Amino acid sequence: MGGLRIAALGPLRAWRGERQLDIGPAQRRAVLTSLTLRCGQVASAEELVRDVWGSEPPASAHVAVRNHISRLRTVLESESAGPKALVSVAGGYALHLPDGALDVSQAERLYARAQSARSQGDLEPAVRILAEAEALWVGTPLTGVPGPYAQRQRDRLMEYRLLLAEARLTLELQLGGHARVVGELLTLADEHPLREELRALQMLALYRCGRQADALAAYTAARRHLAAELGVDPGPELVRLHQRILEADPTLAPPPGAAAVSPAPGPAAAPDRPTWVPPAQAPPDVPDFTGRGEESRQVRDALAGAVRTDATAPVVCVIHGMGGVGKTALAVHAAHAVREQFPDGQLYVDLRGAGREPANPYEVQELFLRSLGVLAGNVPSGREERTALYRSRMAGRRLLLLLDNAADTEQVSTLLPGTAGSAALITSRTALMCLPATTRTALEPFSEPEALALLERMAGSGRCRQEQQTASDLVWACGMLPLAVRVVGARLVARPRWTLATLAERLSDRSQRLGELEVGSLAVESVFHLGYSSLDDAEARAFRLLAIPEVPDLSTAAAAAVLQCDRREAEAILESLTHQGLLEPGEPGRYRYHDLLRLFARHRTLDTDPSTTRGAALSRIARFYLTGTSSAVRAERPYSRLPDVADPDGTPGAAAFTDALHAQEWVLHELPAMLNVAGQILHHPYRPVSAEDTRTLSCLLALLMPFTDFCLPWGPIRQLARTLLRAADHHGDRVSTVFSCITAAAACARIGHHEEAAALAARAHETLDPADRVLAPRLLYTMGLVASARPDGLDEAIGHFRNGHALACANGEPGMAAQCSVNLARAQLALDRPDQALDAARDALAHCPPGDNPVGIALAQRVLGDALAALGRYEEAVTEYRTALDVCRAHGLHAQRAHTLLSLASALAAVGRPEQARTCAAEAAAALAQLGDPTGEERARAFMNRLAAAGPSAPPSAPDGSR
Question: Residues 16, 21, 23, CA angle at the centre, nearest 5°?
């Protein structure tokens, strides 16, 4: 491939070494042009056909292209071995040329060198380099080459030549060479009478030569041509120059002491009119800019990379986040911090990407071109030509583009600089993942210290410190959203007599909060509405409905249930809402609302969706949680028949679990959401609880009972179950009545409401269908728990547990039988009957099926240890406790593990291992504190105190109580 050269700045020619090659007929030249000017990029056969023949090619066009490619290979390829110039790649063709082998590339490199010299103040070398570049043109580019592609490239290269000429002539005038270039400018202005940049240079050169009248006549000629050809007046830059010449503005005089450069060969012209100044369009920085230290450093460091000498591409920084999170403020702050690194100016535009009508990027190009000195009448109307001129104008400059509020990659890609040295700083609600970017900065809401710092700077530090807790309440009510905090600060500034508590009280009403977060032109709701208004119908419906459940976050499966669609469709909608900054991504497959966005979405659903639609959405997610919990019970307790009664039909798309640990994790994660949704349905101020929801929620709460190791919130569960009991009575639903009574009784027993627990258990017993073989043993088990909570009820409890055990065995539910046996053992221990407790504990273990109910297995193992310890068989007890701990660790049973550690500590102390006992007790105390079990933590610390008081010789008494 060595020695191959191609020239396009005139007739298309090619050489190998010193020998000019015969390219062939016009169509073959058109194919070579298309390959050459793509600079090594692949052109498909279809593209080559369009390039040569346009939109209506002959039927033989593809065959002709293949023939031309074959002939070109014969002409261009060297006879020697080595890399080939013209290669076939993935259904297309590419032409690879050595560096400097194409005159167009040489011209572009020379122009970049000239711009670099100009930026360093070396104007005379810049003039000579530009003249060298212009000398590469030997006529009209691509003379005689047919086809639409060649015509577009011809126009581009002619424009580029004028760009070089304008650049050189501008420098000549800056160096005082007006007398030398005035003739050339007269010729160029006559050849291009509508090009206002050339006309401005001509007028300035004439004026500096003392020919004021000729300069004014040139303006008159320009105005006449523009009116006749385009029906427009000269642009403001040319009008301003005309006025300055009329006034003999002294600033138009040649630079003092400027020396003329030696004549430079070749034609010429200038990129910047004399009246052009570097644009400084960035909005003003906010004086109270607060926080964002790390994000600001990241953006500034990335922008600083634009001036590196080894940079080969422009720097592109994307700042993305939800509306109101402060993207523009950060971008403007960073732009001002680095402005000295971009001496050719800053361009700014609001691309309106969050609304329904984003800015047209080609119209933005026109605005930027005019800011870069191109007169309005000289901006090409064609998109490709305009883009070519736009990038040519930016080439060799050090410009910072601030593209605010971008819609998508397609919108901003047209506006990016084409060469290194410049940078684009883009803000968007989306991450623009398809856009090649130097850095992406995801902007989150403020941290609390950042939010408080902004509030203090606006409202005054003294005012905020007098009401520190209220200030914290205010920024939490704002969801730490910078725009909301700024609105609050502005309202406090406008109301100096208000206390912070006054505004906090107004914000405490969630239904009115968005209305309060508005002052002047700042309004949180308006910012949110911009994004909402751009959604399609399906996305808008999802945005509204998914905000109805009062849940911390939503899984894809839960969203699919609410939206009544499959998971794939739900995921697409969720991802789209996240992409548009209206949802936040959580853990994989989970999504959440910012607090204020949830309020906004709920306002929209109240305005848009009927109450039946909103209620149905809650019912669907409640049903989803029921089916998921049913699946979790089946995974943890495969032999349990409770799910068959609570959820006989299931729900399509419900969670499926591979093992008990996975099921437990799901229940633990979704538990707050389940209880919140139940509360929403049961405590709605206007909508009565339906029979369907009553059944769903009573079954859901009953299915949560096997997961007692999660330290269930028994108080709220009791309240929910009592409300469900009233609804069940209203609808005459006996199954829901029994479920609600059992759940409420268990909860009451846990929190010490013994009389209420007994009454509820008795009510369940009265209501239960005598033929029910699934709920009967569970009711007996619950009655045993209720009785055992009373000091005088242990013998009664033993009877209930034995009866429940017998029914469970007859029903083929070994797991339920084991639960009854283990609690029977605990009751026997409480009555100081360790031998009978030992038998019951062993029976419990014998009835625990492998892989079924790991909580029950761990508890049975621990109670077996307790029975052995009560018999003085401490070493055996230690062994059983350690076995129980292994089960707890394997299945993530944190509460069971904590209580087992405390039992182990007692046994270790009893066998003379105080240090090991102290370690176990301390670990148990820490775990119980983390679990929010103050009673258990107190027991552990009391045991540690007794251990310390007993000294190394005597073992302390066992921890009080058991679990």
Answer: 130
Strand pairing partners for 519? 522
Nearest to 604 by CA among 531, 506, 679, 516: 531
Mean pLDDT, the chain, integer: 87
> In what side-by-side order are the strands of the sheet with 584-585?
554-555, 590-592, 584-585
CA–CA dist 707, 692 (Å, integer): 24
Backbone angles phi, psi at 617, to 5 degrees: -65, -40
- Tell the burial category of 100 from Cβ atoms under 10 Å away from its Cβ (0-12, 13-18, 19+): exposed
Is 878 buried (19+), middle (13-18) or exposed (0-12) by CB count in 10 A? buried
Residue 885 CA to residue 876 CA, distance in Å, equals 14
CA 132 to chain CA centroid, nearest Å: 50
The per-residue pLDDT for range 788-806, each reduced to its tens digit, is 888 788 999 999 999 999 9
Q: Check whether 264 has a pLDDT greater than 60.
A: no
- Cα 574-576-578 angle, rounded to 5 deg: 70
Assigned token pair, 81: 């071995």
Instruction: Please state whether beta strands 4-7 and 19-20 pair in parallel, antiparallel, or not at all (unpaired).
Output: unpaired
Q: Is 381 exposed, middle or buried (0-12, 13-18, 19+ CB in 10 A)?
A: exposed
Give DSSP secondary structure letters for 220-268. Answer: HHHHHHHHHHTS-PPPHHHHHHHHHHHTT-GGGSPPTTPPPPPP-SS--
Helix, strand or coil for residue 308? coil
Kindly list the distances between the CA atom of residue 247 and the CA atoms of 203, 240, 241, 252, 718, in Å, as whole numbers in the listed order: 14, 11, 10, 10, 90
Q: Is 954 exposed, middle or buried (0-12, 13-18, 19+ CB in 10 A)?
A: exposed
Buried b (16+ CB within 10 A) or exposed e, 428-465: bbbbbeebebbebbebebbeeebbbbbbbebbeeebbe
Could you tell me which residues come within 8 angstroms of residue 406 by beta carbon, excluding any fewer than 6 positions away?
Answer: 351, 353, 412, 426, 427, 428, 430, 432
CA pair distance 438, 300, nearest whole angstrom: 12
Q: Could you tell me if residue 782 is left (phi over 0), alpha (psi between -120 and 50 degrees) or otherwise beta?
A: alpha
Quote the tokens at residue 408.
Answer: 């998508």
Question: C-alpha distances in angstroms, 605 versus 507, 509, 613?
Answer: 21, 18, 9
Residue 138, amino acid: V
Kind of pairing between the strands at 346-350 and 400-406 = parallel
DSSP single-letter state for residue 673: H
Considering only CA atoms, give the Rg of the chain: 40
Lowest-pLDDT range, 90-104, 196-210, 294-308, 383-397? 383-397
Burial of 775 (0-12, 13-18, 19+ CB in 10 A): buried
| Residue 889 backbone phi and psi in degrees, to 5 | -65, -40
Nearest 5 degrees, angle CA 764-CA 765-CA 771?
A: 110
- Which DSSP symbol is given to 444? P
Q: What is the DSSP string of 60-74?
A: THHHHHHHHHHHHHH
Element (H, E) at 867: helix 854-870
Phi and psi angles of residue 213, each rounded to the nearest 5 degrees, phi first = -60, -40
Strand spans (E) along 407-507: 423-428, 439-442
**Model pTM above 0.85:** no
Could you tell me the pLDDT band of residue 735, with boundaries at 50, 70 and 90? very high
**CA–CA dist 338, 458 (Å, integer):** 26
**Partners of 93 in the beta sheet?**
43, 88
> In angstroms, rounded to a whole number, what is the distance separating the alpha carbons of residues 855 and 891?
8
Summarised one tens digit per residue, pLDDT across range 545-593 is 999 999 999 999 999 999 999 999 999 999 999 988 899 998 899 999 9
Query: Could you give the 3-state DSSP secondary structure of residue 802?
Result: helix
